[in-house]
Specification:
- This protein is an alpha/beta fold.
- Helix content is 43%, strand content 18%.
- The protein has 10 helices and 8 strands.
- Strands 1-2-3-4-5-6-7-8 form an 8-stranded parallel beta barrel, surrounded by 9 helices.
- The longest helix is centred in the C-terminal third of the chain and has 17 residues.
- It is globular, with a radius of gyration of 16 Å.
Amino acid sequence: MGHYHQESTNLNFKSRPLLQVAIDALSTEQALEMVGQVYPHVDIIEIGTPLIMGEGLSALETIKARFPGKKYLADLKIMDAGKIEATIAFKQGADIVTVLAAADDLTIRGTLEAAAGHGGQVMADLINVRDPVARAIELSVMRVPILCLHTAFDRRGPDEDILYLLEVVRPAVTCQLAIAGGLTSDSVRQALSKGADIVVVGSGITDQPDPGKAARTIMKELEEWIDGF
């Protein structure tokens, strides 16, 4: 069973793992269309880095105004100026921002300060960290509420085993763990069995012929998973 540490987060956990859908569209119009299809079957809507780079955080504001009632994550992948950059995102409607786990501790603490000042949260992305277990422990001690185990887009392939990484990190920390990178409806149950609290799915939903149906199928997996315990 996954680890649901409600005291470490205000994400409003519903006694089951959460589904985060990565919206990696290149325009606000495309993103609105995607969100409209998956909206009923998602807990966290991730505004992807490409969209933020192309159209700015105004894209998040526009999408959130059209589709309120969900948690919105701005995938900023902050590496420096943590408090400044996180504050900008929180002021523009982000509920969660991402910071790179490889960033300096001062940068990460800055994002945490910004989150505390705006009622938001921080997710630290362990992408390309050399020793994920050691860094996860350090981040947990710093009280980062959510860690993301993430296979880089450019490195996805048969030699990248994100599920193994989840298996070794899970026993080391008690904070929430998200898993991202090529997940599909077929691999979600494996992620849950290894302790994922948040499953992050992008193309496994948005590139499907019927994104709404794909999101609904994965949400059903999450509901059935917790019902089995």
